[in-house]
Amino acid sequence: MAEIQMALDSLDFDATMALAEQVAPYVDILEIGTPCIKYNGLKLVKALKAAHPDKKILVDLKTMDAGEYEATPFFEAGGDITTVLGASDMATMKGVIKAANANNAEAQIDLIGVEDKAAVAKEAAANGAHIIGVHTGLDAQAAGQTPFEDLKTIAGLGLNVKVSVAGGINKDTIQSTVQAGADIVVVGAAIYGAPSPAESAKELRALVDAA
Ligand SMILES: O=C([C@H](O)CO)[C@H](O)[C@H](O)COP(=O)(O)O
Predict the structure, then answer these.
(1) pLDDT in the model for residue 208
(2) Which residue among 16, 53, 77, 179 has its CA within the 20 to 30 Å range from the CA of 38?
Protein backbone atom coordinates (compact mmCIF):
# COMPACT_ATOMS: atom_id res chain seq x y z
CA MET A 1 0.00 0.00 0.00
CA ALA A 2 1.42 3.37 -1.02
CA GLU A 3 1.96 5.98 1.68
CA ILE A 4 0.77 9.58 1.48
CA GLN A 5 3.18 12.31 2.57
CA MET A 6 1.75 15.77 3.30
CA ALA A 7 4.20 18.60 2.56
CA LEU A 8 3.82 21.38 5.12
CA ASP A 9 5.21 24.34 3.24
CA SER A 10 4.00 27.31 5.31
CA LEU A 11 6.56 29.36 7.26
CA ASP A 12 4.22 29.94 10.17
CA PHE A 13 4.76 27.61 13.17
CA ASP A 14 1.18 27.64 14.46
CA ALA A 15 -0.36 27.36 10.99
CA THR A 16 1.88 24.36 10.30
CA MET A 17 0.82 22.63 13.52
CA ALA A 18 -2.86 23.38 12.79
CA LEU A 19 -2.66 22.05 9.22
CA ALA A 20 -0.93 18.88 10.41
CA GLU A 21 -3.75 18.34 12.91
CA GLN A 22 -6.36 18.62 10.14
CA VAL A 23 -4.72 16.20 7.71
CA ALA A 24 -3.09 13.70 10.08
CA PRO A 25 -5.99 11.20 10.05
CA TYR A 26 -5.53 10.72 6.30
CA VAL A 27 -1.77 10.71 5.76
CA ASP A 28 1.17 8.52 6.78
CA ILE A 29 4.05 10.99 6.72
CA LEU A 30 4.12 14.65 7.78
CA GLU A 31 6.81 16.52 5.84
CA ILE A 32 8.33 19.70 7.19
CA GLY A 33 9.14 21.41 3.87
CA THR A 34 12.48 23.06 3.24
CA PRO A 35 11.41 26.70 3.70
CA CYS A 36 9.48 25.68 6.83
CA ILE A 37 12.38 23.84 8.50
CA LYS A 38 14.81 26.66 7.70
CA TYR A 39 12.43 29.14 9.29
CA ASN A 40 11.41 27.10 12.35
CA GLY A 41 14.24 24.64 13.04
CA LEU A 42 14.44 21.77 15.52
CA LYS A 43 11.68 23.15 17.75
CA LEU A 44 9.08 22.30 15.07
CA VAL A 45 10.39 18.74 14.62
CA LYS A 46 10.03 18.15 18.37
CA ALA A 47 6.55 19.72 18.52
CA LEU A 48 5.25 17.82 15.48
CA LYS A 49 6.55 14.47 16.73
CA ALA A 50 5.10 15.09 20.20
CA ALA A 51 1.71 15.92 18.69
CA HIS A 52 1.78 13.01 16.19
CA PRO A 53 3.86 10.16 17.63
CA ASP A 54 2.08 7.69 15.33
CA LYS A 55 3.13 9.51 12.12
CA LYS A 56 6.49 9.50 10.39
CA ILE A 57 8.09 12.94 10.30
CA LEU A 58 10.13 13.78 7.18
CA VAL A 59 12.45 16.74 7.56
CA ASP A 60 13.16 18.12 4.08
CA LEU A 61 16.67 19.38 4.79
CA LYS A 62 17.89 18.93 1.19
CA THR A 63 21.37 18.53 2.67
CA MET A 64 24.25 19.47 0.33
CA ASP A 65 27.31 19.02 2.57
CA ALA A 66 28.32 17.72 6.00
CA GLY A 67 25.65 15.03 5.80
CA GLU A 68 26.08 13.19 9.09
CA TYR A 69 26.71 16.39 11.06
CA GLU A 70 23.67 18.20 9.67
CA ALA A 71 21.18 15.31 9.76
CA THR A 72 22.00 13.85 13.21
CA PRO A 73 20.26 16.49 15.40
CA PHE A 74 17.11 16.27 13.27
CA PHE A 75 16.95 12.50 13.75
CA GLU A 76 17.62 12.94 17.46
CA ALA A 77 14.78 15.48 17.65
CA GLY A 78 12.27 12.96 16.29
CA GLY A 79 12.70 13.03 12.52
CA ASP A 80 12.10 9.65 10.90
CA ILE A 81 13.40 10.62 7.46
CA THR A 82 15.67 13.44 6.29
CA THR A 83 16.48 14.35 2.69
CA VAL A 84 19.90 14.78 1.10
CA LEU A 85 20.48 16.07 -2.41
CA GLY A 86 21.43 13.58 -5.10
CA ALA A 87 23.49 16.46 -6.51
CA SER A 88 25.76 16.33 -3.45
CA ASP A 89 28.92 14.27 -3.11
CA MET A 90 28.32 10.56 -2.46
CA ALA A 91 30.25 11.06 0.81
CA THR A 92 27.52 13.51 1.91
CA MET A 93 24.79 11.02 1.04
CA LYS A 94 26.67 8.28 2.91
CA GLY A 95 26.90 10.57 5.94
CA VAL A 96 23.11 11.01 6.06
CA ILE A 97 22.61 7.26 5.55
CA LYS A 98 25.00 6.60 8.46
CA ALA A 99 23.16 9.09 10.70
CA ALA A 100 19.81 7.54 9.74
CA ASN A 101 20.98 4.02 10.53
CA ALA A 102 22.38 5.17 13.88
CA ASN A 103 18.93 6.51 14.78
CA ASN A 104 16.76 3.71 13.36
CA ALA A 105 15.60 6.17 10.71
CA GLU A 106 15.76 6.61 6.91
CA ALA A 107 17.70 8.71 4.40
CA GLN A 108 15.98 9.95 1.25
CA ILE A 109 18.02 10.94 -1.79
CA ASP A 110 16.30 13.86 -3.56
CA LEU A 111 16.96 13.75 -7.31
CA ILE A 112 15.88 17.38 -7.84
CA GLY A 113 18.16 18.99 -10.43
CA VAL A 114 20.19 15.82 -11.04
CA GLU A 115 21.13 15.23 -14.70
CA ASP A 116 21.68 11.46 -14.70
CA LYS A 117 19.01 10.44 -12.23
CA ALA A 118 19.27 6.68 -12.88
CA ALA A 119 23.03 6.63 -12.24
CA VAL A 120 22.70 8.54 -8.94
CA ALA A 121 19.75 6.39 -7.84
CA LYS A 122 21.71 3.18 -8.51
CA GLU A 123 24.83 4.36 -6.68
CA ALA A 124 22.85 5.71 -3.71
CA ALA A 125 20.88 2.46 -3.43
CA ALA A 126 24.11 0.46 -3.54
CA ASN A 127 25.35 2.61 -0.65
CA GLY A 128 22.32 1.89 1.51
CA ALA A 129 19.90 4.73 0.75
CA HIS A 130 16.43 3.91 2.03
CA ILE A 131 14.30 6.09 -0.27
CA ILE A 132 14.90 7.63 -3.71
CA GLY A 133 12.89 10.81 -4.25
CA VAL A 134 11.81 11.76 -7.77
CA HIS A 135 11.07 15.47 -7.43
CA THR A 136 10.01 18.30 -9.69
CA GLY A 137 10.43 21.36 -7.47
CA LEU A 138 8.07 24.32 -7.22
CA ASP A 139 10.14 26.49 -9.57
CA ALA A 140 10.41 23.74 -12.20
CA GLN A 141 6.65 23.14 -11.90
CA ALA A 142 6.08 26.83 -12.60
CA ALA A 143 8.08 26.31 -15.80
CA GLY A 144 5.74 23.47 -16.81
CA GLN A 145 7.73 20.40 -15.72
CA THR A 146 6.28 17.27 -14.12
CA PRO A 147 7.86 14.23 -12.38
CA PHE A 148 6.00 11.50 -14.27
CA GLU A 149 8.59 10.44 -16.87
CA ASP A 150 11.35 10.41 -14.25
CA LEU A 151 9.15 8.27 -12.00
CA LYS A 152 8.81 5.65 -14.73
CA THR A 153 12.58 5.61 -15.22
CA ILE A 154 13.45 5.28 -11.53
CA ALA A 155 10.68 2.80 -10.65
CA GLY A 156 11.70 0.76 -13.70
CA LEU A 157 15.19 0.22 -12.30
CA GLY A 158 13.80 -2.23 -9.75
CA LEU A 159 16.17 -1.07 -7.01
CA ASN A 160 15.82 -2.39 -3.47
CA VAL A 161 14.63 1.00 -2.16
CA LYS A 162 11.34 2.83 -1.72
CA VAL A 163 10.50 5.33 -4.45
CA SER A 164 8.92 8.65 -3.52
CA VAL A 165 7.45 11.12 -6.00
CA ALA A 166 6.77 14.84 -5.53
CA GLY A 167 5.88 17.72 -7.77
CA GLY A 168 2.33 18.96 -8.15
CA ILE A 169 0.61 15.62 -7.46
CA ASN A 170 -3.18 16.06 -7.22
CA LYS A 171 -6.40 14.06 -7.34
CA ASP A 172 -6.14 13.64 -11.10
CA THR A 173 -2.62 12.18 -11.04
CA ILE A 174 -2.25 10.43 -7.68
CA GLN A 175 -3.57 7.04 -8.81
CA SER A 176 -1.39 6.89 -11.92
CA THR A 177 1.69 7.70 -9.80
CA VAL A 178 0.91 4.76 -7.53
CA GLN A 179 0.31 2.53 -10.54
CA ALA A 180 3.64 3.71 -12.00
CA GLY A 181 5.46 2.37 -8.94
CA ALA A 182 5.53 5.14 -6.33
CA ASP A 183 5.71 3.80 -2.77
CA ILE A 184 5.28 7.30 -1.33
CA VAL A 185 3.24 10.07 -2.96
CA VAL A 186 3.97 13.58 -1.74
CA VAL A 187 1.20 16.18 -1.84
CA GLY A 188 1.55 19.82 -0.87
CA ALA A 189 -0.43 22.49 -2.74
CA ALA A 190 -3.29 20.15 -3.70
CA ILE A 191 -4.06 19.81 0.03
CA TYR A 192 -3.01 23.10 1.61
CA GLY A 193 -4.47 25.11 -1.28
CA ALA A 194 -7.85 23.35 -1.16
CA PRO A 195 -10.92 25.01 0.42
CA SER A 196 -10.88 22.17 2.99
CA PRO A 197 -7.45 20.57 3.44
CA ALA A 198 -8.99 17.77 5.51
CA GLU A 199 -11.55 16.93 2.82
CA SER A 200 -8.84 17.02 0.14
CA ALA A 201 -6.59 14.71 2.17
CA LYS A 202 -9.52 12.35 2.78
CA GLU A 203 -10.28 12.21 -0.94
CA LEU A 204 -6.63 11.54 -1.81
CA ARG A 205 -6.49 8.77 0.82
CA ALA A 206 -9.46 7.05 -0.78
CA LEU A 207 -7.91 7.36 -4.25
CA VAL A 208 -4.59 5.90 -3.09
CA ASP A 209 -6.26 3.05 -1.23
CA ALA A 210 -8.29 2.21 -4.36
CA ALA A 211 -5.35 2.44 -6.78
O1 LIG B 1 9.62 19.76 -1.61
C2 LIG B 1 8.92 20.64 -1.99
C3 LIG B 1 9.47 21.91 -2.50
O4 LIG B 1 10.77 21.70 -2.97
C5 LIG B 1 9.56 22.97 -1.39
O6 LIG B 1 10.28 22.50 -0.30
C7 LIG B 1 7.42 20.51 -1.91
O8 LIG B 1 7.09 20.31 -0.58
C9 LIG B 1 6.96 19.35 -2.77
O10 LIG B 1 7.22 19.70 -4.12
C11 LIG B 1 5.49 19.00 -2.63
O12 LIG B 1 4.67 20.09 -2.89
P13 LIG B 1 3.70 20.18 -4.17
O14 LIG B 1 4.56 20.12 -5.38
O15 LIG B 1 2.98 21.48 -3.99
O16 LIG B 1 2.74 19.01 -4.11
Answers:
(1) 97
(2) 53
